[in-house]
Design brief:
Helix content is 17%, strand content 26%. The chain contains five helices and 40 strands. Strands 8-11-14-17-20-25-28-31-34-37-39-40 form a twelve-stranded mixed β-sheet, with helices on one face. A ten-stranded parallel β-sheet has the order 9-12-15-18-21-26-29-32-35-38, with no helix packed on it. Strands 10-13-16-19-24-27-30-33-36 form a nine-stranded parallel β-sheet, with no helix packed on it. It is flat. 34% of the residues are buried.
Length: 365
C-alpha cells in the first residue's frame, strides 16, 4: 500500500511542501529510511541522520529548510508526537480478522453477535453474552456468560473476560489481559497479626496466632469499563467485592498493570507499565501514574495528579499534585531531599575535619 504526500498531509492536518504526488509506502527513522519511506525527523537533531538514510520525503520541525536537506517533499508539523499519532493510525494495517464467525469458535446459547463482527478460531463466547456491532475478537479468547461488550471493540488473542463484566464501545484489549478475576480478599476468624500491625503501625506486640486460616471474601461486583479504554498486554483488573471495579472513559493502561478490587479509576488517565493499585482506592480524572508506581489501598488521588516512576503512594493526594519517591512527596521536595542525601558524605567528612582542627589546633608560634 502506498500513500501520496498530499493525502498524508490531509490526515495530519498540515500542508505538504514540494511534490504532493510523491508516493511513500511506510515510515522509518531517518538513518534507516529507504527512498520510499517517510522519514520521521521532527527536530534539528535528525539532520545528520537524514544524510545517512535515503529518504526523499520527511516530517520535519517548524523552520526546517526542506530543500537544503535534499528532500523532494516534506510536511512541517508544530507538534511532532501528535502528528506521529495520526500518521501511525493511517499506516497501521488492521488485524487480519475477516467478518464472520470462525468454524472453530464456540458460541453459547443465547449469545448475541452484532453485525459485522469477526470471531476468531478457538474463541469461546458464553451463553447470553452480547458483542456489539463491528467488534473484532481474535483467537483463543474466552468471554464468560452474560458479559456485555460494546461496538467496535478490538480484543487480541488470549484475553480472558470473566463473569459480571461490562465493556463500552471502541475498547482495545491487548493479548493475555484478564478482566474480572476474583479480588485478593481474605479474612481470619479472629483479628490477625497483620491487622494488629496495621492498626498500631508496628508498635504493638504481635499476638500469638490462633486459627490462621484465611477465609475467601468472594467477588460479586464485577468490572465496568468505559468507552475508548485501552488495556495493555498482561494487565489484570480484578472484580469488585460488592460494587464493581471501574475504569473510566478514555483511560489507557500500559502492559503489566494491576488494578485491585473495588478500585475506581477516572476518565482520561494513564497508568504506565507495572503500576499496581491496591483495593478500594479512588483515582480522579486525568491522573498519570508513572511506571512502577504503587498505590496503597483505601486512599484517594485527586484529579490531574502526576507521579514519577517508582513512586509509592501511601496516603491521599490532593488534586493537581506532582509526586515522587517512597513515600511519595511533592516532586520538588523529593529532589531537594535527594540532593541533600548525596551531600551527606561530604558534609560529614568536612564536619569531622573541622572537629579535628578544633580538637588539635596547630601551634604556629
Amino acid at each position: 500500500m502506498t500513500f501520496r504526500m498530499a493525502d498524508i498531509a490531509v490526515a495530519l492536518g498540515a500542508e505538504v511542501l514540494g511534490d504532493p504526488d510523491w508516493q511513500i509506502s511506510g515510515a522509518a527513522e531517518p538513518a534507516l529510511a529507504r527512498e520510499t519511506d517517510l522519514a520521521i525527523a521532527m527536530s534539528p537533531a535528525y539532520v545528520t541522520a537524514l544524510d545517512q538514510g535515503a529518504a526523499r520525503a520527511a516530517i520535519l520541525w517548524p523552520g526546517a529548510d526542506w530543500q537544503a536537506l535534499g528532500l523532494r517533499a516534506a510536511i512541517v508539523v508544530p507538534r511532532g508526537r501528535l502528528a506521529l499519532s495520526r500518521l501511525t493510525a493511517l499506516l497501521d494495517a488492521d488485524p487480519d480478522l475477516a467478518a464472520g464467525i470462525h468454524p472453530n469458535a464456540i458460541i453459547g446459547a443465547g449469545a448475541q453477535i452484532g453485525e459485522g463482527c469477526a470471531i476468531g478460531p478457538f474463541t469461546l463466547i458464553g451463553a447470553g453474552a452480547v458483542i456489539g456491532a463491528q467488534s473484532r475478537i481474535d483467537s483463543h479468547v474466552s468471554i464468560a456468560a452474560g458479559v456485555r461488550i460494546g461496538q467496535g471493540a478490538l480484543i487480541h488473542a488470549g484475553v480472558r473476560i470473566c463473569r459480571r463484566v461490562g465493556i463500552g464501545d471502541n475498547v482495545i484489549i491487548q493479548p493475555n489481559v484478564v478482566i474480572g478475576a476474583d479480588g485478593f480478599s481474605f479474612v481470619t476468624e479472629t483479628p490477625s497479626h497483620v491487622e494488629t500491625a496495621r492498626q498500631s503501625l508496628g508498635t504493638a506486640a504481635i499476638p500469638v496466632a490462633g486459627d490462621a486460616t484465611w477465609h475467601r471474601i468472594h467477588s460479586l461486583g464485577g468490572v465496568i469499563i468505559g468507552d475508548d479504554v485501552e488495556i495493555g498486554a498482561g494487565s489484570t483488573i480484578d472484580a469488585g467485592t460488592i460494587r464493581a471495579t471501574r475504569i473510566g472513559r478514555g483511560t489507557k493502561l500500559d502492559n503489566l498493570v494491576q488494578v485491585g478490587h473495588n478500585v475506581s479509576v477516572g476518565e482520561d488517565c494513564l497508568l504506565c507499565a507495572q503500576v499496581g493499585v491496591a483495593g478500594s482506592t479512588r483515582i480522579g480524572n486525568r491522573v498519570v501514574l508513572g511506571g512502577k508506581t504503587g498505590v496503597a489501598d483505601n486512599i484517594e488521588i485527586g484529579d490531574d495528579v502526576v507521579t514519577g516512576g517508582g513512586t509509592i503512594v501511601l496516603s491521599n493526594v490532593p488534586a493537581g499534585r506532582v509526586m515522587m519517591g517512597y513515600p511519595a512527596t511533592r516532586m520538588q521536595t523529593h529532589i531537594e531531599s535527594y540532593k541533600a542525601l548525596r551531600r551527606l558524605p561530604r558534609l560529614l567528612r568536612d564536619g569531622l575535619l573541622r572537629q579535628n582542627k578544633v580538637s588539635n589546633p596547630v601551634d604556629n608560634d
